[in-house]
Amino acid sequence: MRFAVFAVGSAMTIAGFVLAAMGYASDPRAGWLIALIVGGQALSLASMSFAPRERPGHSAATEVAEPVGARRRHLGLALLIAHVGLYALVWFAAVLSYAKASAEAPLPSVFGLTFAQQGPAFVWGVVAAELCFASAVYALGPQWRHRLKQLFRYQPSSTPAVAEAPDTPPSFRYRLGLAVFIVGNLLAVVALLLPVLGFAKGAMVGVIAVMLGASEVISLASIFFLGKEGFKELKSKLFGLFKRVPSGEPISRRRHRLGCALLALNVLLQFAALVFPIASHYGIATDGTFPEVLGLGRDEQLQWFVGLLAAAEVFFFAGVYALGADWWARFRALFRS
Question: Hey, how many other C-beta atoms are within 10 angstroms of the C-beta on 272?
Answer without folding.
Answer: 16
